[in-house]
Design a protein that fits this description.
By secondary structure, the chain is mainly beta. It contains 1 helix and 11 strands.
């Protein structure tokens, strides 16, 4: 009888160890198949009166150019969530974010900026929170261990019409984009 108990304990330990290895093998890069990314808000849209200036070309033809004003902007608080195929938020998932027309993806004046919310207060506290400057690569963060959300701030310049996307990638298959548009009135 004692030998049977020892064998049963042995198999119990083996199964526990195998289960631990199986769970450990599912890292944050291995999200479930069919996972998706949700943005809140779904998109950012503005209609503005463009900041046009009129000058003349070399041939004397009037030319209207839109001039970007660095002090004319709006900041939006954005939640990015990775969902499994049942719509349940996944926690502790690595996210890679890039922003079209930000300084690290655009050679002209950047009408968009991506900021990390360092202290979680929902506002941009200073230039040190900017994660899309010319020297920055893509921004990597992870979803919260309880809510499954990752929060960023997007600064949108409201001087001229343009459009871009906040792009998100998680694991080997989930990706999504939030449209950001400023149209002229």
């Amino acid at each position: 009888m004692l030998n049977k108990e020892i064998v049963m304990q042995y198999y119990g330990v083996v199964w526990a160890v195998l289960g631990a290895f199986a769970v450990a093998g599912c890292g944050v890069d291995d999200i479930p198949p069919g996972s998706s990314i949700r943005f809140d808000p779904v998109n950012i849209e503005w209609t503005v009166a463009p900041n046009y200036t009129t000058d003349t070309d070399d041939d004397g033809t009037p030319d209207a150019d839109c001039v970007m004003s660095p002090d004319l902007y709006s900041d939006s608080y954005v939640a990015v969530t990775v969902l499994d195929n049942f719509g349940i938020p996944l926690t502790d998932v690595d996210l890679t974010l890039s922003l079209d027309l930000a300084a690290n993806t655009f050679s002209g004046y950047p009408p968009l900026g991506l900021y990390q919310d360092v202290n979680g207060n929902g506002v941009i506290d200073g230039p040190e929170e900017l994660v899309s400057n010319t020297d920055d690569g893509v921004y990597t963060t992870s979803t919260d261990s309880e809510s499954g959300d990752a929060y960023v701030l997007v600064r949108v310049n409201l001087s001229c019409p343009f459009g871009g996307n906040l792009n998100a990638f998680a694991g080997s298959g989930a990706n999504g984009a939030m449209n950001i548009s400023v149209s002229g009135s």
